[in-house]
Design a protein that fits this description.
By secondary structure, the chain is of the alpha+beta class. The protein folds into four domains: 75 residues, no CATH class; 86 residues, no CATH class; 115 residues, no CATH class; 182 residues, no CATH class. The strands form six sheets. The chain has a seven-stranded mixed beta sheet with strand order 16-17-10-20-22-23-21. Helix 4 packs across helix 5.
Length: 527
Amino acid sequence: MMDKTIKINLAGILFQIDEEAYRILRDYLQAIDIRFRHVPAGNETIEDIESRIAEIFQSQQNLAGVISKENVESMIGIIGKPEDFEETENQSESYMTYHQKRHLYRNPDDSIISGVCGGIGAYLSKDPVLFRILFILFALLFGIGFFVYIALWIALPYAKTDSQKRELHGDISHLAHSNFPGQKGYTDGNANVNAGGNYPKSSVGGAFNEIFRAIWRVCYIVIRIILIVLGVSLVLTGFLTILCIVMVFVFKYPGTYSTGVFDMHIVYLPDFLNFIVNPKITPWIIALSLIVIILPMLALIYWGVKLIFFFKARDGVFTLTGFILWILAITALAIILFNEGVSFTSSARYSIQKVFSHSPDTLYVKTEKKISDLKFDKQLFLGQERYAVFMNEEKNELYIRPYLNVNSFYGNDSKVEIRKNSSGRNKVAAARRAEDLVYNFRIDRDTLFLDEYFTISSGRRWSADYIGIELLVQKGTVLKLDSCSELLLNQGSGRYNIVSGSFQESHWWKLTDEGLDMINSTSSEKK
């Protein structure tokens, strides 16, 4: 059964109010009427109170538009009970004194920066200029005043409403009956009372206030310039980051990024994910990664625009929604990557060795299966092209280039060692995966035949697989490499010292005490 509602008229405005709330409001208005009925100009005071009640009810109306008991009790808490109003007489005029518990607020009616000092002055009935000077003095003392001021700025609310201003100023005496307590523009005929509070005016304090205002205007201009520059930086950072992501992963341009430390061909990273994780999970990883990256960039752009144009907006719900979405995306992405990354927790090596029948003075290194003979769709290079991956999406195969390393050893026979490396959930699984890597090589007297690539056994995903070819020969051995073998040697060049020469000038090398040294082909042939 629904509660009965009653229509009432307050200050010319119609309201719907439930029956219980109506009884409380009726008793309250009757008490107000009794309080001011026989006071000169009491009718005007009653009308002012009714107007204020109507104003409060308008701000409190719920979705149904019915004033409830809670609304009426909240209104009484704001305006005060009838017994809180007292009557006094002074020079044949009637005045009203309002007693209310005091609270400290920032004062909008006496503000230079944020109203902190104005609020303290009104609360303590002192000239705010004293507190402004104190804050400046303490700011010069290790910045204490500055941090205290910022803390009060954050902690103290603005005295916006009439009730908040009454709580700030306390017992406001000598108010003309034509003004309701706390209303803007109230006067009392006292020339020595400041409009921003109930403290005495001071010509010296006024001069200081004007100086402070002038200084603050200059500081405000400097701060605005700094904020505009910062805002432009945030907008450019966010916009360029999003633009780079779109250019790289949507338009596949430019494809290579060089920082002087490493080069990366990263445009095909999303495609490479299909060879690392379950293809059904790949779109989720890409989508969540884009959300994790782009949302903060959009936030940077928005905050930058706010700093540039210095506008306020009710964006709390929007910001909170974006932040929650970002956290959810990070959480979901972390869970997926953790589940997929378990297969990379351990690494292991599987080695194969073959010994030359004798240690040749000149060793030839040739390639048999070459990448140029393959059919592949995309290629991915990481780390100055030392890790090269070629993708055949039609056959769902990967071709990876190994690296070649040449070192000296103390022994009688030259040998070659193939070191296969892989990752897995544990050492056993990693070793099994390393053993399954498919790579072919052979030795024919003084010639080492190598493949330019290795493949992953069918039925499993990429697991940070790589193969190193360790060629161990005696010092003074001359090596002749074909172009593809030199490319493998180039990939391993970071692991030992090449004394001189480049891979484009000659195919003849000699292993010395210091490392590989280029020699010309004529001298080698004569030897």
